[in-house]
Amino acid sequence: MTLRIAFAGFNLESVTAVPQIVELAEFERVCVRGAELTERFRGTNTVPGGCLRICEAEGAEFVPLFHTLLGALGPTADAAVAHYTREIVEGLRSSGPLDGVILFLHGACWAAGYPDVERHVIDAVRAAFPALPIAVALDYHGNIDRETLRGADIAVAYRHSPHIDMGETGERAARALIRLLREGRRPGLAVARPDVVIPSIMSATALEPLASIIAKARAAEQAGDCDISIMAGFSYADSANTGMSVICLAWAGQEAAELKAQVFAGLLRAAREPIANAIPILSAEQALADVERKPATGRPIVLLEHADRMNDSTHLLRALLGRDVGRVNVPFLLDPETAAQAHEAGEGAEIKVALAGKTAPETGGPVEAMARVIWSGPKSFNVSGRYQRGSFVDLGLTALLQIGAIRVSVVSHFAFAVDGDPFFIFGERPEDYDVILLRSKTHFRDYYEPMADRILVVDTPDLGPADVRLIPYRQLDTAKAYPWSEAPA
Predict the structure, then answer these.
(1) Residue 344 CB: number of other CB atoms within 10 A?
(2) In whole angstroms, what is the distance from residue 162 CA to residue 441 CA?
(3) Are 102 and 173 in contact (CB under 8 A)?
(4) According to the model, what pLDDT value does residue 167 have?
(5) Is 63 or 71 the better-scoring residue by pLDDT?
(6) Which of 16, 243, 266, 354 is deepest in the core (most CB within 10 A)?
(7) What does each C-alpha distance from 285 to 305, 436, 487 come to in angstroms?
(8) CB 474 within 8 A of CB 238
(9) Percent of the chain having pLDDT more than 70?
(10) What is the pTM of this model?
(11) What's 90's DSSP letter?
């Protein structure tokens, strides 16, 4: 008999301090359902793409409910959580006989009325379908604990940051679920937490000593019948379970899963200080002095404004105005008002802009400048880089502006600028510029580390500080966690 496996994705990485609430309409703007989901994600490096690949390879029927993913924004509205939880349950009820379901959740979705959004979704499915096997695919930056996954049978998370293995993560979830269904036995599922909170900028999985710990996890999987997910957590979502964690799925049983999870949590705990300080962080003045002292020679210098959370920070943009550092590009700056203003003025127009810095006081406030409109109009594309390759991105109304030696692409919808696409879609190349101002944490590394002259990580007074002790937590008990406690329990 053909296995029937349902899929649903409700995914958002939330910064608690961002004042803009993500309403249902924003999720609906990117939501795809039913057969469109299958067609949109087939062949893509995404979780639904990976799930679909395995189901088709194993002769299982893939039953698509819906998929909505917004990346990294602020908190979500309670109504959106309730809506998609209800849609999952009702969709499962109306899909006929099912053998299992895969839920694609982030792990750091935050809503005021839900202490743990992901736990709520999983528990709702479990309550409605007590015997239905549930597999969960999570983001590497999710905040989870045992209670989050109490209703799940399978749980896996991305292994890489940059998340170049989104498709592989979907494959792992689907493969484990199909194995459970065919063998008729559940693996042990354990979660262990080292009580360590790190900034996202330190979570790149190629950084040491984190890379060596992750390599040991891969070796443990080779030696034993298990799947180990080491998760960095997301320090900018304030919840009781904010921080690093380890998930172990062990086919030898619960005791084996618990033992392995505890071992790797112990390794993370022991290496907490070097993990949290893996790369140097510069001030804006230090970074710009470095650029002026040693200009780019054939390859661009990347200035990484990592503390920006909404792609509209203006701290470094303002600091670059009037500095002689060569040709500068600022890709995918979020400012729908300025994009509309530029489009109305038309190509070639000179306009006075109050650019970006509008989502929160911490973003630096708008930059006032005269800008020339190079191009404007609706813009969308399919990702060419490894991170989310093949995914459709709608930037909405977009404008390409020139402010002195600085070129800025202004977009109406949040989008990651982490590969060459922000240049390719305008007929340009990153190599055309001397300095590129990115606002990312880790995803840029896959594309830019091999091609940049150098990468300078800059700390600005925005909502994602490198020093997590500056974050005003209300839910997380910081007394028990590093770096507040030097010796986590």
Answers:
(1) 12
(2) 9
(3) yes
(4) 98
(5) 63
(6) 243
(7) 13, 16, 34
(8) yes
(9) 99
(10) 0.96
(11) H
Three-class DSSP category at 383 = coil
* CA distance linking residue 104 with residue 97, whole number of Å: 21
Give the list of residues 6+ apart from residue 131 with CB closer than 8 angstroms, or none: none
Q: How far apart are CA 465 and CA 236, in angstroms?
A: 9
Q: Which of 91, 62, 82, 35 minimizes the C-alpha distance to 173?
A: 62
Structure tokens, 141: 């930056």
Average pLDDT over residues 50-79: 97
Pairing relationship of beta strands 4-14 and 454-458 according to DSSP bridges: unpaired
- Cis-peptide, bond into residue 162, ω within 30° of zero: yes
14 contacts 66 by C-beta, under 8 angstroms: no
In the block, residue with structure tokens 């982490």 = 418
Return d(Cα 303, Cα 299) in angstroms, integer.
Answer: 13
* Token pair 């990484």 in the structure block, residue: 304
DSSP-assigned letters across all residues of 266-308: HHHHHTHHHHHTSS--B-HHHHHHHHHHS--SSSPEEEEETT-
Output the 3-class SS for 230-255.
EECCCCCCCCCCCCCEEEEEECCCHH
Q: Provide the pLDDT for residue 297.
A: 84
User: Residue 218 to residues 224, 230, 253, 266: CA-CA distances in angstroms?
Assistant: 10, 10, 19, 16
Q: Helix or strand or coil: residue 42?
A: coil
Residue 183: φ, ψ to 5°: -90, -20
Structure tokens given for 395: 């930037």
Distance CA 231, CA 245 (A): 5
- If you count them, how many residues does the chain have? 489
Which H/E stretch holds residue 29?
Answer: helix 24-30
* Banded model confidence at residue 71, pLDDT cuts 50, 70, 90: confident
pLDDT for the residue 316: 97
Residue type, 328: V
| Residue 180: both structure tokens together | 């459970």
Q: Which residue has 């080779």 as its token pair? A: 222
User: How many other CB atoms sit within 10 Å of the CB of residue 222?
Assistant: 8
Tell me the CA distances in angstroms from 116 to 56, 130, 147, 343, one per residue in order: 33, 20, 9, 41
Strands (DSSP E) found in 93-163 = 100-105, 134-138, 154-157
| Residues 132/92, Cβ–Cβ less than 8 Å | yes
Kindly report the number of other CB atoms within 10 A of residue 60's CB atom. Answer: 22
Burial bucket for residue 282 (CB in 10 Å: 0-12, 13-18, 19+): middle
CA angle (144 as vertex; 142, 145 as ends), nearest 5 = 165
CA distances, 155 to each of 177, 230, 253, 425 (Å): 10, 12, 14, 37
Place of tokens 């006081």: 361
Residue 195, pLDDT score? 97
Q: Are strands 245-250 and 435-438 parallel, antiparallel or unpaired?
A: unpaired
C-alpha 114/C-alpha 77 separation (Å) is 10
Among 170, 123, 124, 180, residue whose Cα is nearest residue 3: 180
